[in-house]
Structure formats: structure tokens, C-alpha cells
Amino acid sequence: MIRTEVDGVPTLFAPVSGPLRAGLVFRVGEADEPLPQRGLTHLVEHLALHRHGITDYHFNGATGAVSTSFHVKGSEDEVVGFFGGVCSSLASLPLDRLATEKAILRTEAAGKGRSVFAELAAWRHGARDHGATAYPEYGLHAATEDSTAAWAAHWFTRQNAVLWIAGERLPPGLRLWLREGYRQPVPRPSAVLPPVPSYVTGPCIAYSAHVPESTAAWMFSRFLERQLFRALRQDSGLSYQAAASYTEYGDGSAAIEAGADALAETRDAVLGGFLDVLGRIRAGHIDPADTAAVAAQAIEAYRDPATQAGRLSVAALRLLTGREPVPAEQVVAELSSVT
Questions:
Q1: In terms of pTM, does the model score above 0.85?
Q2: Using only C-alpha atoms, what is the Rg of the chain?
């Protein structure tokens, strides 16, 4: 991975063969939105992409908890044109589309259910920062041309962006015409729970833990998923989905989440099986072959050239949140050292 810059935007470049892939990432997301402004970042993302219409190359945008990205896969000319168009739109949003895009976003939201992990986030953090991401996009109703443009001007700036590119070279003619601004700090997760451990009732069995970020914590999430899937689906057939995830907040902490679905008549059994898995892990009943398998799979995936773009995206987010990207050799060494 080579570090450079394009028009003052820090840039991470990985020389790889094949189609050119790139992403422009901004340090703004749903956790930055006060509850009355929920949805403004998503709205800006949609407006910035509208002018591209239908193309022969692949592009998209994504709004997460602490970042918003615009990514593209195509030829050098297509990538140059895509980022030129995104930056132009961010500087002068097509606000004549405001009502239409608001309607599209409300329709999109209507087709989504609220996940059990969103429920847990709301209980843990309250109706702010990472907890607010569980709530509807209330800000769409009151969003005006002025408020939407002001949000874009504040957050989507040169100093608050990182570019990543995976390809044979940096495309000639690539320019990023962005407003001046400053790097925005990552929101610290708030906590409104009484002392943990705590529990709430809900339709599924799910678990959420707030931990220091580390390779071992990531490995634990993979190991936990392996154990839950084995116990609840393969062995007992009680669940169809039994999975776990690891998500970094960007401030040195992370969330490990796990969940399993269940029929109403088997919910107690799933809960018992879920707690049995956690209990065995807590007691230290961990098969070294399982940890070795998790590490081997992770190392193989990390070394796969096809995952280079994903690794660059992670590195870009680390850079945006004030943390140095971790060299590949260090990641592999840390994965290998977890017992």
C-alpha cells in the first residue's frame, strides 16, 4: 500500500492488476446526526450521485455510522469522470431533486425492518450518536434546500476525506475539487444503560458487547459465530441464522454482536443454547483447532488479491478516524499469534 495525495486529499494506492476500483470516503455518518437531523447524510449521498444516472460502469454510495463513501469500478476515464461528478455535485447539490430524493429515501426506509442489533444500540446508547442510528430518518421531513446544502458544506470537505485506489496506476487527470474544511472527530459512543450486564426483551436472541478494538476481539467474533452456528444450526437445528459481527467505532473501541433467529415455540431452547455457548467460552472450553481454523481462514482471505479493495476501504476509515492503517504483515502476524 502506497500513501500519496490527490488535490490535498490523503490517498491510499495499491498496485494490482484487473479492473480499477476506487472509493472516496468522508468522516461523516449517521452517528453524527442529531435525532431531528437523522437522514441528512443519506440525503446528501443520494443527491451527489443523481447526475450519474445509468452508466455502463458500476458505482454506488453508502452511508454508515461514522463514514460515507462513494465507490466505483471501471476504466480510468470512468473513474476520473465519476469522482469529478461527485465532487461537482457536492459543491453544488442538485437541490431541484430534493423532494424526489426525500420520497425515494422514505420508500427505501419503508422496505427495511429494524434489526435486533439496532434495538440493542438504542438501549445501550440512547437516542444519540450510535444509538440514534436505530431511529427513523426524522430529518427528511424538515430538510430544506438551505439545511441540506449547509450539511454538505460542513462535512463533505477536502480535509474530511480519504481516497483509496486499487489498480495498475493512479488514473491520469484525476481531480478532487472539494470545499475547504477540517477533519471531524469521531463521535464517542454514549452509554445510558444501568451497570452491565443488562438485558431487554425482544423478538430474537441477540448479544452485544462493547470492547477495546483488537485483532483478538475480531477473532473472538469469528470464533463465536463458528460456535453458535455449530450449536444452534448444525447440531440442534434450532436456528437458521446464527451469526456474529465485529464493528469498530473509530475511537479505539468496538462492538461484538451476535444473534440467532428462533421460532416462538423454540425461543427458550435457542436462548439456552446461546447461553451455553457463551458459558463454555467463559469457562475456557476452547478447542485450539477452532482458533487455528479461524486464523487460517482470515489469513487466506487477507492475502487474497481479490480482497485488496476491501482492505483499502478499511485502511481509509482508520486514517479518517485518526488511527494509522495497519500494515498487512502486522495483521497476519497478529492473526497468527491469537491462541
A1: yes
A2: 21
